[in-house]
Amino acid sequence: MIGASFMRRLLGAITISALLTSVALPARAAEPQVIGATFPINSDGDLVILPVRVWGKVYEFALDTGVGPTVYDVSLKNALGAVKHEVEVDNYGRPVHVQLFTPPEAVLGTTKLRSTALVAVMDLRFLREFTGSDIRGLVGVDALMNQVVELDFDAGQIRLLDHVGKGAGLPMQMSFGEQGQLYVDADIARWGREEFQVDTGLLCSGRLSRTVFDASAKNGSLSRIAPNTFLTAAGTRRVRRGTLDAIRIGDDTHRALEFCELGSHSDLGIGFLSRYVVTFDFPELKLYLRRGRRFGTSDQRDLSGLGLRRVDGKTIVEGVAPESPASNAGMRKNDVIVRVGMVDAAVARLHVLRGALAVPEKDVHLRLRRDADTFDVRLRLRDWRVYDNPGK
Fold first, then answer.
1. Do residues 98 and 121 lie in contact, with contact meaning Cβ atoms separated by under 8 Å?
2. Which range among 1-10, 179-188, 350-359 has the greatest average pLDDT?
3. DSSP structural state of residue 80
4. Which of 241, 260, 291 is the last residue of a domain?
5. What is the CB neighbour count within 10 angstroms for residue 99?
């Protein structure tokens, strides 16, 4: 979510040798046993939120295999003690200052999350505003390297297991990048093999490196290309987004998934992974994929023209695309959305609200507040974008 190119430049934060420290393989039983407890997760492609206890209090942390070091929000900085290291890194052309600290004791249920490197501090307000969840940290790869983690999106549960079960599904070999990021191989239509970073903190199906994105657009395997706003730690960034004809991982082929462009590498996000029951065997560097209920579902695009964020308990219109249904209905930036249909927009996950605004040819009724006025509008959801390569 923060941006893998950003986290790779956290020099000194994490190394492969540090990740491999203290990895102990568990004893094998006939069936995998749950270690500690089972926790509920969202099953619709939203972020995996974990209740992490630090300093005697429970905070919401997002599970983010796209980052090496575990990240704490700046609001928790004072409890971390003295700064051990400082770096300034480039995040999509914008500098971000990062401080590194000795990891505190963090616990998930009864399981200690043992960070093997320094932890980073960042302002995660952008993530809270984008998701509507009170996220105060990111559980990175460093805290998981002695764990077997099952993400059962069908059951809506995450489990820490003592080993991988026989029915875990298709095994994929993972490999380390230079600074602890994890990769698997997949094949792209008319391109071939590509390494993809596995990123549970990425709120979409995935991203393609600029080289792959451009080549796929040129050979016609990427269509319906349009500008898209992408959220980073340094603010919003405009990138391109397109529909990929096909991507194959193992024996499974996925069609018509949405991918954005990225500069240096490609990655698979939570939107892709949530189509499976996923098991990460971190000690053995294996990823297991078993088809889930969302396998074969299509990705959705916003059909309203609205950008949304959550600020001080209110769902705010971040922007309105010209010529979109929201623009034609007279909506404006900074309007407060009170209700989407019958859903209270102040408490619903923004992922849910965005999904409600992505159903083709549906009429959606919104209640808005603008200054002292409250009023209703109706949107007829449709794709207003004009594509140079519309595809089929």
1. yes
2. 350-359
3. G
4. 291
5. 18
Inside any domain, residue 385 = no
Same domain (yes/no): 11, 119: yes
The answer to whether residue 297 sits within a structural domain is no
Parent domain of 262: 170-291
Q: Are 254 and 245 in contact (CB under 8 A)?
A: no
Of 33-37, 175-179, 231-235, 258-262, give the lowest mean pLDDT range: 231-235
Q: CB neighbours (10 Å) of residue 167?
A: 11
389 belongs to a structural domain: no
Total Cβ atoms within 10 A of residue 5: 16
- What span, in angstroms and rounded, lies between the C-alpha atoms of 185 and 319? 37
* Residue-wise burial string across 54-68, b where 16 or more C-beta atoms lie within 10 A, e elsewhere: beeeebbbbbbbbbb
Say yes or no to pLDDT of 14 above 60.
Answer: no
Nearest to 366 by CA among 323, 321, 312, 308: 308
Instruction: Report the alpha-carbon distance of residue 51 to residue 59 in Å, rounded.
Output: 6
376: which 2 tokens? 């209703």
Q: Where are the extended beta strands (E) located within 233-265? A: 235-249, 252-262
Unique residue bearing structure tokens 């998930």: 108
Tokens of 222: 């990427």
pLDDT of residue 17: 43
Strand partners, 307: 319
Tell me the CATH number at 275.
2.40.70.10
Q: Please give the residue that has the higher pLDDT: either 12 or 71.
A: 71
Does residue 57 sit within a domain? yes
Phi, psi for residue 305 in degrees, rounded to 5 = 90, 10
Cα distance between the two ends of the chain: 31
- Cα 120 → chain centroid: 18
Q: What is the pLDDT of residue 235?
A: 63
Residue at 43: amino acid letter: S
What mean pLDDT is predicted for residues 227-241? 73
